Amino acid sequence: MAQIDLHTPISEEAIRALDVGDTVTISGIILCGRDAVLPRVLKMIDEGTAGQLGVDLRGQVIFHTAVSVAGVGPTSSNKLEIESSIEPLSAAGIKLHLGKGKLHEATVNALDRYNSVYAVIPPVTALLGARTRDARVLAFPELGMEALHIIEVDRYPAIIAAAHGRSIYD
Q1: Which pTM value belongs to this model?
Q2: Beta bridge partners of 99
Q3: What proportions of the chain, in percent to the nearest 5, are helix, strand and coil?
Q4: In Å, what is the CA distance from 154 to each residue of 15, 95, 98, 128, 134?
Q5: What CATH number corresponds to the domain at position 17?
Q6: pLDDT at 67 over 80
Q7: Hey, which residues does 7 pair with through a beta bridge?
Q8: Residue 48 backbone phi and psi in degrees, to 5
């Protein structure tokens, strides 16, 4: 198991080199969204309007979280609205899904098909708050803290939990 520093956008080669159990730090831009906003993002992808977000999804990270004055912390990635977004977001170019909890085997296999991975992050809002450099609403401001946010981070810690058809939970 290795300690790997990742910077967004993340390349296909960097994802192929990751293995279940690797610890990573993530720096750069991360998209943040959870069950209220992810279906809207999927609709934009389906309609071909995701370019209106102003961010290329290819090579990006999506963090399953809301952003509030209290900070950021992972929500359960196996909520229906979140887990069902993982395959289409991977197909659209998302390389790393960041959250908490066990994913279904079908989702782990879908990650493999699109050379994407899933990493878990402990619920440590104070640590993450100190490593968040900037945050702003990217889309759907009417959802408040559950809007689609974009944050700039410096060395967010995480553990690769699903990669190449395998899961840390197996």
Answers
A1: 0.82
A2: 120
A3: 30, 35, 35
A4: 19, 18, 15, 9, 10
A5: 3.20.130.10
A6: yes
A7: 27
A8: 75, 20
Burial of 85 (C-beta count, 10 Å sphere; 0-12/13-18/19+): buried
Q: Which residues contact 39 (CB under 8 A, 6 or more apart)?
A: 81, 85
Please state the domain count of the chain. Answer: 1
Q: For residue range 120-141, what is the model confidence (pLDDT) as tens digits?
A: 987 677 677 778 889 999 999 9
CA pair distance 63, 58, nearest whole angstrom? 15
Amino acid at 119: A
CA-CA distances (angstroms) from residue 6 to 15, 84, 131, 154? 9, 25, 15, 10
Q: Domain of 150?
A: 3-167
Burial 43-63 (b: 16+ CB within 10 A, else e): ebbeeeebeebebebebbbbb
- Please give the C-alpha separations between residue 66 and each of 5, 46, 49, 134, 149, in angstroms, as whole numbers: 24, 23, 23, 14, 8
Tokens of 129: 């708050």
Quick one: which H or E segment has residue 81? Answer: helix 80-91
